[in-house]
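Risk register update: the risk of archive-format incompatibility is retired. Evidence:
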Amino acid sequence: MEIPRAERGPASTRVAVLGPGRIGRQIALAFALGGCPVVVLDLKPRPAGEARAVFEDCCREIERDLRLMTEEEVVSAGDAAAALDRIRTSIAVEEVADCGFVQEALPEVIELKREVFRSLSGRLAPEAVIASTSSTISPSHLVEAVTGPDRFLVVHWLNPAHIIPLVEVVPSPKTSEAAVARTLALLEGLGKVPVRCGDSPGFISPRLQVLLMNEAARLVEEGVATAEDVDRAFKAGMGFRYASVGIFEFIDWGGVDVLYRASRSMANALGDPRFLPARSVEEKMERNELGPKTGRGFFDYAGEGRERFESEKVRALLRQLRRQREA
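Archived output:
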């Protein structure tokens, strides 16, 4: 099945991606597939030959990704060719002047990002949105370097950015609602799923992911399982489940009380307080808000009924299982 072209989005928005590295290339491709003209800027001073090699590698990787997408019938050959035509490369900072959206995709070095924002943000039109793709640096630590701080925010793409639907949108306290709204509309027009979240270390996905990855590494260190078996268990278990059922939906489905007891049991068995229940889980237990079976958990199930809720989730998993078997 092909991804529908994102004609509902502001495809006329000109986009500049700062940085020709892997994530920058993927972001550029995502915008181009959505119909936006994109310029990928390399702001690092390089000898002419090295700069040319960087851009050749950038274009080669984008062409490879488009070829894979057409081979898997995610986009048509025509749409792939059109997307490629929308992408340009440049070393000229003046290119940002007529761009309505600028996405920084530089290494996770705070002073490097600040330096770029100081030098470029004053060149932009007043209404242009400036975004950082940082996964760990707070927008509050970057915004002071931006001319026009009300149009700055973090827009965190997940690798591979041209494939993963989720994009985390993190305003700073100075970001205007107009800038947030324009960013959400632009991302939705690309066919992405933007999720707004607060300015907290790691936002949503990186914070969850760091804990999960390190716990997986500990399982291997302790000899509980091999890396191959941990990956196999994750893909066939949690990875499969959470593609159709959200974390809080599953807590409610299984029962808040089940999570509470399992958490205490794990904390006691491992002697590790990290596994103790979260405060909100303890509060749900005290109020007997355990999920569909009591009418309320992390969500309200008044009038919905446990059977209907469970049927919807089971159907979602069955549809996913069918798609997997048909692949």
